[in-house]
Amino acid sequence: MTSLPPQPLSPLDGRYRSAVTGLADYLSEAGLNRARVEVEVEWIIALTDRSLFGSSPLSPADKAALRALYTDFGQTDIDWLAEKEAVTRHDVKAVEYLVRDRLSALGLDAVAELTHFACTSEDVNSASYALTVKRAVENVWLPKLRAVTAALADLAREHRDAAMLSRTHGQPATPSTMGKELAVFAWRLDRVARQIEGGEYLAKFSGATGTWSAHLAAAPDVDWPELSRSFIESLGIGFNVLTTQIESHDWQVELYDRVRHAGGILHNLATDIWTYISMGFFAQIPVAGATGSSTMPHKINPIRFENAEANLEISGGLFATLASTLVTSRMQRDLTDSTTQRNIGVAFGHSLLALDNLQRGLTEISLSRHVLLADLDANWEVLAEAIQTVVRAEIVAGRSQITDPYALLKDLTRGRRVGGPELAEFVQGLDIGDAAKQRLLALTPAGYVGLADALVDELA
Fold first, then answer.
1. What is the per-residue pLDDT across 98-113, written as a single tens digit (0 to 9) for each?
2. How far is the C-alpha of 225 from the C-alpha of 214, rounded, in Å?
3. Which one of 368, 398, 424 terminates a domain?
4. Hey, which of 45, 143, 161, 275 has its CA 20 to 30 A from 295?
5. Angstrom distance (rounded) from CA 451 to CA 163
């Protein structure tokens, strides 16, 4: 058997690439290297701006030319780094050599020794990961989560008055509305999204073991912690002053746990919508040309929600591994985090793919209100809760001599189907006041939804 031409091993880089391509700008190897170049360049500018070691501030033209090294970072640079790393066997060292090479080409050899000055690789890496993850979350992943949440909120408002039979423990229970049930998911997702938006992205910039030892040896009179802080904060990320050789990754653990939490809510949404489809509550809108089954022409499969469910399980497992691994580093440094962090993009990729499927899936369903109403009409026994609660109130008010109203309704309804006429006859015979009796006689399963409609207004 002949070998295939080179193929992507991951479906994220093959079958599903179009759905996750935005993440590659940040969380690919090339995206990480571009951020590394950015950190190296900005560090040179920060040092020369302070005229350290006899240097002079660079001209605006020279700064612009230097910054173009990362703003215009492209395939030529990617290829150059690949060739250099094949020799250095060190990714960050290859980036340093790239910057030095470009400085020479720009006629800036005088400041070449400020490239990677007093840095450990993890100074550059921690800043680069903070930048790339922050940008990926804020520019790609969060907007997609917000789009799904907004679609849910729109559906919740559209179906706010669509009475439906609830199923607690899978059994008929007090009715709600489809809008209120979708609003629950939108509210949960919005809450976690706000937590993610308020999260920190931290970097360290304090040398080999986080002590600024080399910095002080070179310039003991410089306030290196303050210079490092102002530099890192100028990049738009936060500064961690107390570290080992690595930034401790706690912000990453917090972020990945929150994204995994959001994924759990989305997984719950996917399985609930799938179940509502199987019950006929939602009808699927046929997509022209699509095939549901290779042998059963009638089928429209809920593949968007099944795909989302599976990808959320994959991403959740990866985020759990990232969080549990990154929280630990042996003594001052080990390399377990290095290979682990290379899978950040994979974890976000499967999550983004799930979000894309959910967003599309929510546009391919329509509510079958007649099915909801038929389901309600077949389950009048759910009004037993209302009846026994009203009886209790009547007893307290002195308008009833009934004892143990719960047991009374339990005997009537538990494990039995009770229709509207039977319940009406039962209510007519109750020892309660006329006003309460009339309220109960007017009640139907579809009308027994409490504040479900109004609760949708709790959405922002």
1. 999 999 999 999 999 9
2. 13
3. 368
4. 275
5. 11
